[in-house]
Each structure stands twice: as C-alpha cells, then as structure tokens.
Amino acid sequence: MPSDSTNPKRVWIIGSSWAALYGTALIGLNTAWYANYEHSSFHLYDDSKEWLQMDKAGHLFTNYFEAKWTFDALKWAGLKPRKAAIIGAATGLFFQTTLETFDGFSAEWGFSPSDMVANTAGALVFLSQELLWKQQRIQIKFSSTFYQTTKQYKSNCDCDLGKREYDLFGSSLPEQTLKNYNKQTYWASANISSFFPDSKLPKWLNIAVGYGADGMLGGYENRWNGDNGLKADATDVKRVRQFYLSPDIDYTKIKTHSHLLKTIFQMANVIKFPAPALMVNSKNQIVFYPIYF
Predict the structure, then answer these.
(1) 283-292, long-range: CB < 8 A, 24+ apart
(2) Gap between the Cα atoms of 139 and 188, Å rounded
C-alpha cells in the first residue's frame, strides 16, 4: 500500500533494488552480448530506416514502462507524484542511454540517435500525461502472435525461409516474442472514460491504435548471404506496414479491494488484451480479425 509520506526505508529499498538490477543487467549484457563482438572507438550509427521502425516502437514502449514502473514504486515509497514522475522518466532514460552508449563502443553497431529519439519519446509520453492529467489516459502496450510468420510467405527464393527466421530471431518462444518484429504490435491505448467522464461506457474500456509490420527478412531488405555463400533473394516477399484499431481493457480501472490484484492489474496493463481488430496495411489491404493477439 502506498505511503502517505516519504518513507525512507522504502526509498532505500527501491534505490538499492534499482541499482542492483541496473548493475546486474549491464554485467549480463556485456557478458552475453557485447563481449562477443569487437570493441571500437565511440561512433554513431544511423539505423533509422531499419525494420520499418518497429525497433523504434520497441524503444518507445520500453522507456515508457521503465518510467511508469519507477513512478509507481516511488509513489509506494511516499514521494509526491510530480517528483516521482520526473525521477521515473529520468531513470528509464538514463538506463536506455547507458545501453546506447555501449552500442556506441561496439564495432557491430554504434550509438543510434534515432533510438535516443524513441527513448526520449517514451519518457515524454509518460511524463507529459502525469504533469498534465495526473494519470495515464493513453498507455503504450505490446502484443505478439505465436505462429511462425514465414509459413505464410510465398517466395520463389531458393532458400529456407524458416531457417532464416530462426537465424534472425531465435527459435524459442521468448526469443521470437522479443526479437521477431514480424510478430509484434505496439499500441497506444486510450481510456474512454478518462476523456469522457460522463460516458455510460464501462470505466475499463479502452480504444487502441496499433502499429506493426510484416514480411521482414532483414533489417533493410529481403536479401542476405546464404550458407552456401550465394546471395539469397526473397524480395518477392513484400515488407508491409500494418495499422490496427481494436478495443482494449485498462485493468487498473477494474475495481478491487485486493492489493495483490491491483499489483497484478498494473503489470498486466503492459499487454494489449486480445480482442477483435481491424487492420489496414501499406498494400491498401483491409483485414478484420475476430481475435487479434
């Protein structure tokens, strides 16, 4: 339960926990990721046109929830909402800036200004709503499908598209969920009652606008070097942007007296609720999904 005033013990618990998580994450990333690639002098890298900007949507989503969860933890410790919101936004941005700096010293990548724009946007989406409305009327959410995307692609490429998908994004469910941009959708989910308090609609009902992409077998194009050293060409698989409209649920608007359920609902709000959805893509196709994950 949130403290009515600043609780030094809780502040210490949050500060030490965040520091431990931060240090562990950096050590783990350096060991499992950056150590496998050559280091270089600090340099910039323009990846703004990769993956139809799906990775940028991921950066915005990540920074938004890092800010929000830090804010919620600080409110539990009794900090004033405005101060907690500013610290929350700054904390998420600091962590992501550290990771971008690591990229800047990696020969494989580089410091990405466009990633930083997306990180900053995520922090500002959170902070601006707290300062303006003292609530998150529009929440950034995530969803992911579970099927193997390449099974739906039709290509004349003399190559194994399934193997290409697994080589790029991994074969396990967690890897596919986190890495496969073809499976991901990012949502801006607006709570109707927050904008129209006199509405007779349920307080938990949201309307969500989503962005996704499909047909991506490489960062920039669907060509790559195959195992036999020959160039694989699957450019007949079209890379498409997808835009969605769907109802959603704001779990935090569901009334309960259970502090455990309230915590669970806060965490569940990361994920877009599976619901009917209308999709329009960059090929001017319109598709209705009875249930879209």
Answers:
(1) 283/238, 283/240, 292/143, 292/185, 292/244, 292/246
(2) 6
Strand pairing partners for 40? none
DSSP conformation class of 137:
S
pTM metric for this prediction: 0.92
Q: Residue 293 pLDDT > 80, yes or no?
A: yes
Can you name the residues that pair with 231 across neighbouring β-strands?
225
Residue ranges in the chain assigned as alpha helix (H): 8-32, 54-76, 81-104, 113-133, 161-169, 173-179, 192-195, 259-268
Question: In sequence order, which residues have a C-beta less than 8 Å from that of residue 170 and are 6 or more positions away?
Answer: 176, 179, 180
pLDDT in tens, 165-175: 888 888 888 88
The rounded distance, in Å, linking the Cα atoms of 119 and 129 is: 16
- Read off the DSSP letter of residue 243: E
HEC string of 175-207? HHHHHCCCCEEEEEEEEHHHHCCCCCCCCCEEE
pLDDT, tens digit, 9 for 90 and up, residues 63-97: 999 999 999 999 988 899 999 999 999 998 998 99
